[in-house]
Here is the input.
Amino acid sequence: MSHKGKLYGVGIGPGDAELLTLKAIKALKKADVICLPKSKDQASTALEIVEEFLPKDIEQVQMVFSMSKDIEQRKTSRKNNALEVMEMLDQGKNVVFLTLGDPMLYSTYSYLLEYLTKEYSVENIPGIYSFSAISNTLSIPLCKGKEKVSVIGAFNKDSEAILALSDTTVCMKISSYGKQLAEFLKNNSGYSFTMISEAGKEEESQYFDAKILEGDLPYFSTAIVQKIKQ
Amino acid sequence: MSHKGKLYGVGIGPGDAELLTLKAIKALKKADVICLPKSKDQASTALEIVEEFLPKDIEQVQMVFSMSKDIEQRKTSRKNNALEVMEMLDQGKNVVFLTLGDPMLYSTYSYLLEYLTKEYSVENIPGIYSFSAISNTLSIPLCKGKEKVSVIGAFNKDSEAILALSDTTVCMKISSYGKQLAEFLKNNSGYSFTMISEAGKEEESQYFDAKILEGDLPYFSTAIVQKIKQ
Here is the structure.
C-alpha cells in the first residue's frame, strides 16, 4: 500500500496558465507520469498550459478513449485505461491526469475513476470552469439573489424547459446543437445571447448575435443564455 | 484616465488558500486597498485566506451592504459603496474587492459593479466555486455526457421542476430553505443527497442523510442532490 503512487485528477482551467491554482501546480510538480485523454486538440492544449510546471524527465501518456456509439466498447476502453493507470500506480509512480476545466464537469477522467479500485489513493483538484472564466471576462453575473443557473451539454426534450426555468443557462459543447439552440431563440424572445469560442487563447472570439449558431462552430465554444429582466 | 487606479474583482475560492489562482495572487500583490463586504463571518474568512499574499501596508475597507427588505434601501447602499470605490480609484489606488467563491456567482460584488461608471477599468478574476471544490473532494461528478446540472440559491415555485429536470442540482445558501428541500426529498424518492458544511475549514462536516436538513444548518452549507441512475 505505502509503495503505491497516488493519482491526482487535476483541473487546469479553461486554457490560461494563470488560472491554475496553487494546489494544481503542487500536484504537477510531484508527477512522475502525466496522463491525458487524446481527443480533438485537447491533449496538446492541456500540455501547453502546464508545461512550465512539469518535472523535466516526466513520462507522458496520451490515452485514447473510444468514442464508439456502442456503450460496451466505450466501457471496455475506459476500463483498459484505468488498468493502465493502476499499473503505473503499482509501480510507485505518481500519476497526474489532466482535465481542461474541472475533473468533475463533463470530463473523461470521471469515467476512468469508475474503474479504479478502492485500494488506490486519489486526490481530485478542482479547476476553473470555462463558463466561469467567460462570465468574469465579460462581467456577466451568472446568478444573483434567488436566481438559478443551469448548465447543459446537449439539447434534448428537457432543454427547452430548463431554458424557460433558469435565469441563466450555460450551453457547453454547443458545437453539437447550435442549430437547435438557434431555433429555440428564434421562437422565444426575451433571452440575451453571448458566446465565446477558444476562450483564453489567441483566437478567442466573442459573439452577441445568435445567428452565429446557424453555421459551424469551433469545438471550444460556450454560450451564456439569459432571461432579459424587465 | 491613466492616473486612475484599477478595480480587481477577485474570486478567492471556497476557503483554502491553495485554491487561489496565480492570477488572483498577482492581483492581490498589486492592491493598495482591499475591500470586502461585511456580512456574517465572510469578511474575516476571506481576509484569512489571502493575508499572506497582501502587501504589508495595505488599506482595509469593510463595506456594509444593506440587507433591508426595502429594495430601494439596498440599492442606495450598493450605490454608496460603489461611490466609495470610485473615489479610491480616482485617487489612483488599485482596489481589490474580495469574493469568497467567484465574483459572478451569488456575489455582492456583482451588485456593486452595476453602479460603477464606464470610465473605470475593471478586471474580474474567477475563483473556484464552493460546489466545484465539494464535488472534487467527494469524487462526485456533477455531470457526464449529455447530463445537465443546475444551481439554486433559494427554494421557490420552480425549484421542484428544476430538481426533476436536472441530473444534478447544487443547492447553495441552503440554510434558508433546508426544511423545504427535506420535504421535497421525503416526497420524491430516487435522489441521493450529500451536504458539506464549512468546506475546506477545520470544522468541515459531511452529511449523507437528508434528515440533517430538518435542523438548523451552518451558513456555509452546500448540498448536491442527484438523480439515482438505474
